[in-house]
Amino acid sequence: MAEPTVDPEEQIRRAIDVGVAPPFARLIGGIPGPLSIRQGDLLRELAARVTQGVIVEIGSYRGKSTVALAHGAREGHDVPVYAVDPHESFNGPFGGVFGPVNRRQFYETMLSTGHWENVRLVNLPSTVVAAGWDRPIGLLWIDGDHHYEAVRADVESWERHLLPGAPMVLDDTDRGGPQQVVAELVDSGRWRLGEKRRKVQVLHRVG
Fold first, then answer.
1. Where are the domains of the chain?
2. How far apart are CA 56 and CA 135, in angstroms?
3. pLDDT digits 0-9 by tens, 154-200
4. What radius of gyration, in Å, describes the C-alpha atoms of the chain?
5. Which region, left, alpha or beta, applies to residue 111 given φ > 0 means left and ψ of -120 to 50 means alpha?
6. Which of 15, 17, 69, 86 lies in the 20 to 30 Å Cα band around 28?
7. CA atoms within 13 A on the CB side of 187
8. Which homologous superfamily is 8-205 in?
9. Contact yes or no for 50/81 (Cβ under 8 A)
10. Beta partners for 95?
11. What CA–CA distance (Å, rounded) separates 77 from 45?
12. pLDDT of 140-153, one tens digit each?
C-alpha cells in the first residue's frame, strides 16, 4: 500500500519533530519523489557510516535518494556515490511511468543541491554495469525495476561486490517483487533483517 499523500511542509515538520535535522529535512522535502524524509534520513545515516569502497544506488529516478546518500557520504568519509539508472522509457509494475525526462530532472536535482560533486551517474542497465564492476561496495541501495525477476537479478548481480559487513537496502519491500525477494533472501539463511522504515528494508549478510 502506498504511503498517504502529505503536504510537503507538514511532512517536513513531522520529520523535524521526530529528530531529523531541519536542514536535511528541508533539503529532501523539497525534492519530488516517493521516498519519505525519514526514509531518506535512514539512507543518509547508512551512507555516513561507510568508510571503505563506494556507495551504489540502483534506480535513481529524479535523484531524491541519491541526494540522501551523497549528503550522508559528505557527512561521513566522502566516499563516491554511483547512481545506476538507464533513464529509458519504462512502465513500472506499480503504475509508475519513467523515461528520459527523469534524466534531466536528475541533473537539475544534482545542480540545485550541490551534490553533483560526489555523484557519478551511470546511464546503463544495472546488470550490464554489474558485469564489469570492479569497485568494492560499502552500501548497496536497490530501487530499480520492481518486477520480481528484475529485483532478483539486481541482487544476484551486485551482492558479490559488497564488502564484508556492508548492508544492502531495498525499497518498496511491502509489496510485489521487492517483498518476495526479501523473503527469499531471509529464508535462505544468508541474510537477516535490519532496520525498517515502512517500505525501506535494511538487510545484513549472515556470517
1. 8-205
2. 10
3. 999 999 999 999 999 999 999 999 999 999 999 999 999 999 999 99
4. 16
5. alpha
6. 86
7. 6
8. Vaccinia Virus protein VP39 (3.40.50.150)
9. no
10. none
11. 12
12. 999 999 999 999 99
Instruction: Select from 172, 81, 82, 93 the least CA-distant residue to 126.
Output: 82
DSSP string for the chain:
-PPPP--HHHHHHHHHHTT--HHHHHHHHTS-SS--HHHHHHHHHHHHT--SSEEEEE--TTSHHHHHHHHHHHHTT---EEEE-----EE-TTS-EE-THHHHHHHHHHHHHTGGGTEEEE-S-HHHHHHT--S-EEEEEE-S--SHHHHHHHHHHHGGGBPTT--EEES-TTSHHHHHHHHHHHHTTSEEEEEEETTEEEEEE--
Q: Which residue type is seen at 79?
A: V
**Greatest alpha-carbon span in the chain:** 44
Residue position matching grid coordinates 531518506: 40
Read off the amino acid at residue 198.
R
